[in-house]
Design brief:
The protein has 479 residues and is an alpha/beta fold. It is 54% helix and 9% strand. Helix 5 links the parallel strand 5 and strand 6. The radius of gyration is 26 Å and the shape is globular. The N and C termini lie far apart (73 Å). The structure holds nicotinamide 8-bromo-adenine dinucleotide phosphate (NBP). Nicotinamide 8-bromo-adenine dinucleotide phosphate (NBP) binds next to helix 1, helix 4 and helix 6. It is an enzyme of class 1 (oxidoreductase). InterPro entries: 6-PGluconate_DH-like_C_sf (IPR008927), 6PGD_dom2 (IPR013328), 6PGDH_C (IPR006114), 6PGDH_Gnd/GntZ (IPR006113), 6PGDH_NADP-bd (IPR006115), 6PGdom_BS (IPR006184), NAD(P)-bd_dom_sf (IPR036291), Pgluconate_DH (IPR006183). Its EC number is 1.1.1.44.
């Protein structure tokens, strides 16, 4: 067989099929393969005219059609299916070949696979791909990990098929082994937080300001022209302005209020706990989905009292809308900051050299959290690669300072009226935690020392100490 294909894609469900078409549309010769050959045939029948595809039914035939070093992109279900496909291909490959996992793998699996394939001299590249079906076809945001050598070969291909913003590709080498999938996971965690914050803003405008979904859609459209400009705000306005064809009711009112999840938010929260990274807004957004899907628990709580409903005048509602915009923006800055902190923490833990500015840069297009303000996040991190927090950057600090009164007013109004705002409140509380001069952590240390002799440090002298709490005069000793 003529080894003509620049890249091979195995796994031709929605994502693999669209990525294969994207490569082909950009002039690459693409070998295509799927466990069930019917998918391969239908891809070529329907879209063969879009470029050059080399279909293969057998794995050997697929591998033989690839130029060396061979580049195989796996687009199958994450988990055991990915391992099964790797096992199938490794014996057919040789040193220097590359396997790219474009699925939503857990970064720990990617680390394991990368280490195992290194022993065969095969480059394993865990590449986070965001943008869903549409992005895969027309330009996703691509977050590849793995070796620098593999990016030297794959980078130009990824950068060609990725989304572009201001002429810049939305693909960059994130870092070694699992770094790409880690960053994709955090992207999804931020996505959970961003969506929850938008949903809470909607709920406040609906319940407190008593706007209709169609009116709120217009508010979101206005916000989308300003600093909140983003894909998620844009689609929110679309969803809110949609009317149900069967009932004539606002579509949002006929959708069951139980949110689903596929697991990347949960992974982000679990990993944040492992790293000790306080990603509280992302965690609350994930728990909010879980709580919404607990009907028995919700029924048990439903009869209990809530807050007070106080009608607003039109001008009060307009003022409140402005406050919600401020609160949403400030909370969003905190959520993104928490995501970046996780990436900084993992980089420290694993010694990964990650360019945080470049990460924000490739999230400006192609992916679900694409937003105008990522430009500013990118600039802030690029200007100071050691930036601990966005809030240490003067322009963001100024905006957060300006948002103080409305942000607190919105969270207080929600509490008084009994409207849940777990993500808004978590963001504000995170802000207040991190800016506090003194935290009650001092009391926690006292409690821990009391029941578990866990020791403490003092503010006035060096060393580690323990108080003998049960002795009458409670003597203190150096531990
Ligand atoms: P799915 O996640 O639905 O997986 C279906 C594909 O996996 C089919 O090609 C199927 O082959 C193949 N497959 C399975 Br299942 N088990 C296999 C096995 N043991 N051996 C070989 N092939 C096997 O596809 P998708 O929605 O296109 O997503 C692909 C990857 O991209 C996933 O990891 C997903 O998490 C990730 N992702 C998806 C999105 C999205 O918006 N859908 C976005 C970003 C990332 P068959 O045809 O023979 O059954």
């Amino acid at each position: 067989m003529n080894a003509s294909a620049h890249i091979g894609v195995t796994g031709l469900a929605v994502m693999g099929r669209n990525l294969a078409r994207n490569f082909a549309r950009h002039g690459y010769t693409v070998a295509v393969h799927n466990r069930t050959a019917a998918r391969t045939r239908s891809l070529v029948e329907e879209f063969g005219h879009e470029g050059t595809f080399v279909p293969a039914e057998a794995a050997e035939e697929f591998v033989d059609s690839l130029q060396r070093p061979r580049r195989i992109m796996i687009m199958v279900q994450a988990g055991p299916a990915t391992d099964a496909v790797i096992q199938e291909f490794v014996p057919l490959l040789e040193s220097g070949d590359m396997i790219i996992d474009g699925g939503n793998a857990h970064f720990a699996d990617t680390r394991r696979r990368e280490a195992a394939l290194q022993e065969h001299g095969i480059h394993f590249v865990g590449a986070g791909i965001s943008g869903g079906e549409e992005g895969a076809l027309n330009g996703p945001s691509i977050m590849p990990g793995g070796s620098k050598e593999s990016y030297a070969v794959l980078g130009p291909m990824f950068e060609t098929i990725s989304a572009h913003v201001d002429g810049e590709p939305c693909s960059t080498h994130i870092g070694p082994d699992g770094a790409g999938h880690f960053v994709k996971m955090v992207h999804n965690g931020i996505e959970y937080a961003d969506m929850q914050l938008i949903a809470e803003a909607y709920d406040l405008l609906r319940q407190v300001a008593e706007y209709s979904p169609a009116e709120i859609a217009e508010i979101f459209r206005t916000w989308n022209k300003g600093r909140l400009n983003s894909y998620l705000i844009e689609i929110t306005a679309e969803v809110l302005s949609h009317t149900d064809a069967d009932t004539g009711r606002p579509f949002v009112d006929v959708i069951a209020d139980a949110a689903g999840q596929k697991g990347t938010g949960r992974w982000t929260v679990q990993t944040a706990l492992d790293l000790g990274s306080p990603a509280t807004t992302i965690a609350q957004a994930t728990f909010a989905r879980a709580a919404s899907s607990q009907p028995a628990l919700r029924s048990a709580y439903r009869p209990l009292p809530g807050g007070t409903h106080i009608p607003m005048t039109r001008s009060e509602a307009e003022r409140f809308t402005t406050q919600v915009e401020e609160a949403l923006y400030a909370s969003k800055v905190i959520a993104y900051d928490q995501g970046f902190k996780m990436i900084q923490d993992v980089a420290g833990a694993y010694g990964w050299d990650i360019d945080f500015g470049a990460v924000a840069g490739i999230w400006r297009g192609g992916c679900i959290i694409r937003a105008a303000f990522l430009d500013r996040i990118s600039t802030a991190h690029a200007a100071d690669p050691t930036l601990v927090s966005l809030l240490a950057e003067p322009a963001f600090a100024q905006e957060i300072t300006a948002a103080q009164v409305p942000w607190r007013e919105v969270v207080a109004t929600a509490a008084r009226r009994g409207i849940p705002t777990p993500a808004f409140a978590a963001a504000l509380s995170s802000y207040d935690t991190l800016r506090a001069e003194r935290l009650p952590a001092a009391l926690l240390q006292g409690q821990r020392d009391y029941f578990g002799a866990h020791t403490y440090q003092r503010t006035d002298k060096e060393g580690t100490f323990h108080t003998h709490w049960t002795q009458p005069d409670r003597p203190e000793t150096a531990a």
